[in-house]
TrEMBL record:
Residue stretches making up the Gfo/Idh/MocA-like oxidoreductase N-terminal domain: 7-125
Transmembrane segments: none
PANTHER family: BILIVERDIN REDUCTASE A
InterPro entries in the record: Gfo/Idh/MocA-like_OxRdtase_N (IPR000683), Gfo/Idh/MocA_Oxidoreductases (IPR051450), NAD(P)-bd_dom_sf (IPR036291)
Organism: Caldilineaceae bacterium SB0664_bin_27
Gene3D superfamilies from the UniProt entry: Dihydrodipicolinate Reductase, domain 2, NAD(P)-binding Rossmann-like Domain
GO MF: nucleotide binding
Name of the protein described by the UniProt record: Gfo/Idh/MocA family oxidoreductase
Sections of the chain in a coiled coil: none
Length: 339
């Protein structure tokens, strides 16, 4: 593998983007060399915090691409702006590391994957929860059928966020539920989604500008249904990911505010057995950022396509899109998800 990290321009560094700068400034895989933001105050703050020169600060990606030699563009703007910056980076021949969601529109994401292929560049989406120790352990157990085949299950996440996400259509679905869909699809990797019946909505007492809650029944091949409840306008915090298998129930519990790290097998006779966790990402924010940066590096340098490539991320967006279409039609949506 090459010794030099990928040189990256980061767009949108006032929110989540500042965490990328903090945790990647000494990375052996992806190294920030320039930053872009519409706020000069934010640019100055992040320049000083991360040891960048004034010449590395820009208010448009176009100017940064014109003046800074780089391999990669990191897109950490508000979700509704992802697509335009991903497209500009691809057309400039740069690889892309983009925060979730990849885009807020399935068809647009498909076009961007095709465009990246045509320009010979790679896309990686920061969907890091699938690499948490709990998720990796559950995934392995499902692949090994440690407790027999799955029959049904649920994922319920009640998050008491203090306010709404940055404005987008179906903001909960695109800016949080995509994480949960990704986790579910990762753990059940040996199965494909066949049908989705869902509802993206705002509670009668809610005050978000677009839906803060999504519920769905997601059916996998073999007639394996899972129910999903995802909200960031809860009044209390709770999280449970439960899989009913032939021989035991596999249960992950905890408040996802702090990321759950407990995993148990529960039996009909009342036994509850704590399970050791496989190696993976811990709860520190930098762990996920560095993990995904390494995956992008290996994708670019060694052509090892990760599960979180733009192409693979389309599976998550297809389910999110199906929930929206089901909301609009009141009908279950059948999916033919490519392998």
């Amino acid at each position: 593998m090459a010794e030099e990290p990928l040189k990256a321009i980061f767009v949108g560094v006032g929110g989540r983007g500042r965490h990328y700068l903090e945790h990647l400034k000494d990375s052996p895989h992806v190294r920030p060399v320039a930053i872009v933001d519409i706020s000069r105050e934010i640019l100055e703050r992040e320049r000083l915090a991360n040891g960048l020169p004034e010449t590395a600060c820009f208010t448009t990606l176009t100017d940064a691409l014109r003046h800074i030699p780089a391999d990669t563009v990191g897109v950490t703007t508000h979700a509704r702006l992802h697509a335009q910056f991903v497209r500009e980076a691809i057309l400039a021949g740069k690889h892309v590391l983009v925060e979730k969601p990849f885009t807020c529109d399935l068809e647009e994401a498909v076009r961007l994957v095709e465009l990246a292929d045509a320009h010979g560049v790679k896309i990686v989406v920061t969907q890091q929860i699938r690499y948490f120790r709990t998720e990796l352990t559950m995934r392995r157990m499902m692949l090994e059928q440690a407790y027999g085949p799955p029959g049904s299950g649920h994922m319920h996440h009640y998050k008491p966020r203090s306010g709404n996400y940055p404005l987008s259509d179906h903001m909960q679905l695109w800016q949080m539920t995509v994480h949960e869909i990704d986790s579910l699809l990762s753990v059940l990797a040996q199965h494909k989604v066949t049908r989705v019946f869902g509802y993206s909505f705002e509670p009668s007492w809610g005050n978000w500008p677009t839906p803060s809650t999504a519920v769905a029944t997601i059916e996998f091949d073999g007639s394996i249904p899972f129910t999903l409840v995802s909200t960031s306008q809860a009044r209390g915090s709770a999280y449970e990911f439960r899989i009913e298998c032939a021989e035991a129930t596999l249960v992950q519990r905890g408040p996802l505010q702090d990321i759950p790290t407990t995993l148990h097998a529960e039996y009909q006779d009342g036994r509850v057995v704590p399970l050791p966790l496989d190696a993976g990402i811990d709860v520190e924010p930098g762990d996920g950022i560095n993990w995904v940066a390494r995956l992008l590096y290996e994708y670019v340098v060694d052509s090892v396509e990760p599960d979180v490539s733009g192409r693979h991320n389309l599976d998550i967006l297809r389910v999110a899109d199906a929930i929206i279409r089901s909301t609009e039609t009141g009908q279950a949506i059948s999916l033919d998800v490519p392998s």
